[in-house]
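re: that complex we talked abt at group meeting.

here r the seqs, copy pasted straight from the sheet so there may be weird spacing, ignore it
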Amino acid sequence: MMKIFKLWRYPGRIDFYRADDRLLLIQIGIIVGVLSGLASVGLTWSLGAMLDLLNSLRYHWWAFFIPAAGLMLSSIFLETIMNEGAGHGVTEVIYSVSKAGGLIRLRSCFTRLISSCLTIGSGGSAGPEAPVVMSGAAIGANIARFFNLNERQRITLVGCGSAGAISAIFNAPLTGMIFAMEVILGEWSMVHIIPIAAASVAGAETCRILEGNRIVFESSIFHISSFDIAACFGLAIVASFASVMLTRMVRGMHNISKKTPAPFWLRAAFGGAAVGIMGFVVPDALGEGYHTIHAIIHGVYMEGIGIAFIACLAKIIATSLTLGWGGSGGIFAPCLVIGSFAGLAFQRVLVFAFPWVMWSGEGCFALLGMAGMMSGLLQAPLTGLFLIVEITGSYDVMVPLIIVSALSTAITHYFEPMSYYLKDLIDTGALLRPGTDQRVLSDISIREVIEKDCISVSPDMLLKDFISMVKKTTRNYFPVEDTQTGKFLGIININKIRPYIFNTFLYDSVVVEEIMDVDPAVVYYDDDLSEVLYKMDSKNYFSMPVLSHARFIGMVSKATLLDKYRDELKAQTFHIV
Amino acid sequence: MVRTLLHVFRNTPRGREVFMQSLYFCKLTGVSIVIYIPEHTKFLMYYDNDAVQVDLDKSYLTDPGTAKEHAEDLAEKAGILPRFIKPKNFTASTLPDIPVHFDFMCCPMSIASLSAKISPGHIGPKVRRIINAATFPVIIPIPHFKEWHSLVAFFGGSVSDVKELKLALSLKKATGLPLDIFTQAGKKPKKYFEKILINSKLDKEIEENVREWYFLTKGKFQHNLYNVPHDALSILGAYDKEFVKDLIWGSTMEFVQKTLPNTLLIAGPNYIIPGG
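got the structure back, here u go
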């Protein structure tokens, strides 16, 4: 019984899967996709139930307390009850892929689902997508852990979980797949694509079985004229402006919140209350805002250019308050709402300024605005593009979508070179995409490149004895250690003591202590290899001593490092075809 | 090669007691100490196949201004040069990642504010994940420091126990302390255990290095534990036998931890013997 159980826990050891582990990953990926789909459906249903429950209370004067309470409970749940140390869900997933070999805590399978339900259900302006991605990725990571899969396989399953989640929540399998590859993994390799595609389909199918095969924002057919195509350039600028504004405002609010001398739950409650008060003036600023997108796409949203601009600005502020002050949720849904408002406002300006032109409908520009906003904020044009196509079923707007997505990505990149999800990771040097120099170096530890076959000498050794010892070895560096304490005192570099070597008169009068370098540049046992290489490059060294607790451990040299670097690079990129 | 022990420092009198156990271990074995002074009440350790979050209580953040000084003072008195680590990576802004490339770790005593809970045994479930995932042995300290005058290895015949026995033998050589073996044999004859030792090529080493083998065939395990010297460092293997049984009934290690007032050194299922 135990033997079967153990074999079951180590499927990678089964001969059938050894030849090609994609078969194994496809099977486990489907399981991950189904579970991610269930998580997504669970969150959607919970949000629906919570909105139904609280809707009747929103007309009271004290309704602004509802988002305040929701955000407060959400932050308490995450910080105190679950001890999560929460960050943005998607950022944490990318971090785990970059730095932690795809390991994610088990509790993350459900924590963000509950906290985001409290935030969004109470009226906070955030989206359910990032929490579902976090949950799906954590499911993938922990299933991989259960089956004792290796790091590469685990990362693939993290991608499967993310793909399944996005695919299920938007009923958009293609987008789920592209999101996982473009945003989460940051690489396009066959070894990932196939299991992720399977998981994405599994996620979407789970959602379709439980909720029906619906298109999230079904739209009518749009007729695109050349004027509309030309207008795309202007819309891309508007969408970029909105995405830069949202990014900076969320970050700004977060910084203000961090500096506010109040407990985290009080800050979250303040953010929620502010959103609640805003909701009295602009009700569309509350919640995930999908109903607003429906109204805009169908061309039944309130008239007026000013209304559209105000709603757009209000949604940006509400999202910043929610996410910046401690609410839990993603930026996808607010992004879509803001993008649709931006598109709507732009279309109305066009109609006002050029009334003689037959512009496409408000819905069409709303779609384009959503794509522009998504592409700009995430710096992921393909995700933005395919998401809009799939969630609206509007393949006829493909050309303008490509223009807006590409331009918006480029323009936003000029002002905000890093995507919303990656900014923190890049700032802290934690974004390590596979096959890059930083990633290769981070995967090699200094312990792997230490040359331990060094010969230590004592400070009182005579030059004569030292020379006779040098004759028997091929090494150029000799650490000098205290004979009593074993402490590192300095190093002798053969190249630097040539004048002494050839002066035989000094052989009996000079000791090692007198010719050693007493203050050599050293590296430490815990240093990252990128730091080691930086020191080597900046001082033009080819070899450096490694110390720990003031003791000499060995030497690290560029030659050994290059060998290891190549091995690691081969290991990281062998599957990229 | 410098071997290192990770200690999570708590700047309180109780933390000092635990720290002194780490220092004493380092002094006896020649291991260097690496100290982490927490700035947050939690941290993450990414092992090969697990991400373990260690939740501390607020006492670990006591008076951070003097923590380093206190740790240095104690280490200096013990004649040990300490090294302090600061986390370089953060999974979230309040969740630092601590490296896992150590040779030993002193498990933080995650005690609650209730003094009744300050006892060995209470921390069992919390350290289970660390022991299960770690490639190094974990020291489970006791509330008050006392010097060890011998080593006791618990040998039950499992794979983990064999690894733990090798660890005990290496510690015996490093410290020079006498080593005893404790076996609750039950119905199994001594030959069964001796065969395991022969198969593991440990028989001769055991014969040469072990002071006494407490081979107990009668009596309850908890009663027989009285034979373990109170001033011995107890070395155990853990969690490699019956997964389901451990899950339902609890492991022998946790039972020993609950019963004995000794400092424990636990080698988990993923413990890798250096050079072996």
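couple things i noticed - Residues 150-267 of chain B form a domain with the Rossmann fold fold (CATH 3.40.50.620). Residues 144 and 151 of chain B are 18 Å apart (CA to CA).
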